[in-house]
Hints:
Layout: E1 15-16, H1 24-36, E2 40-41, E3 58-59, E4 61-65, H2 71-89, E5 95-96, E6 100-105, E7 110-114, E8 127-135, E9 142-144, E10 147-149, E11 164-168, E12 173-175, E13 178-181, E14 183-192
Antiparallel strand pairs: 1-11, 2-4, 3-7, 4-6, 5-14, 6-14, 7-12, 8-11, 8-14, 9-13, 10-12
Amino acid sequence: MPKMYTEPRWKEVLINTTHPIFSPQQCAHIIHVGHQQPPKVAEVGITKAEGRINKKQRLTTVSWIPFKVLPMMYNRVEQVMNSVNNNCFGLEGLVVNQQAQFTEYGKGGFYDFHIDSDTSLKNEPPVRKLSMIVLLSKTSEFKGGHFEFIDKGNRPAPLKQGHAYFFPSYMRHRVTAVTKGIRRSLVMWFGGPPLR
C-alpha cells in the first residue's frame, strides 16, 4: 500500500494525504447517500443541547451518514485514520465513535475559526482528538472554500477530490467563503481517552 502521508513522523500537525482515500466514483456515491439523509442548517456547538444556528459564524448545510448505510466507507476511513495516527500523531485509543458529517457549502457558505474539541469538557470522554476532512467535490466545481489553519491566510496545499486533511481537533481552523459553485466534503472526528 502506498504511503498516505506527506511528512515524517511527529513533524507536522496537519497531514494532507498524498493518495486519494476515495475514488471519484466513491465520492459521487457518498454525495448521493449524503443527499438521501435529512439535511439541516449547520449549528455551532459540540452537542445538540449547545447547538445553535449562528449565520455570522457558520453558513452551511449538513446531514449525518448512519454507520449501517455505508459500512465500507467507515471501514476505509478507520483504516486510513489508524495508518495516519500511527505514523504521524501517536494519539492513544482513537476510535470511530461519531457518524460522518456530509457538508455542503453553497455560494457564500463558510465556517469561521473554531476548534472541534469540547473546551468545557462537559461532554467528554471520549475526547475528540483527531479531525478529518475529505473533499468530495471535483476542484472544478467550486471556487473559494479554502481551508485555513490557525491564522488567517495560513493555507495548506489545497485538497484534491478524494484526498483528506488530518489534524488535531484542538487546532483552530476555518473554511473561507465559497464564491462559486458548491463545495462538498465529508467530515469526521476520532475520539478516545483524555490526552495525557
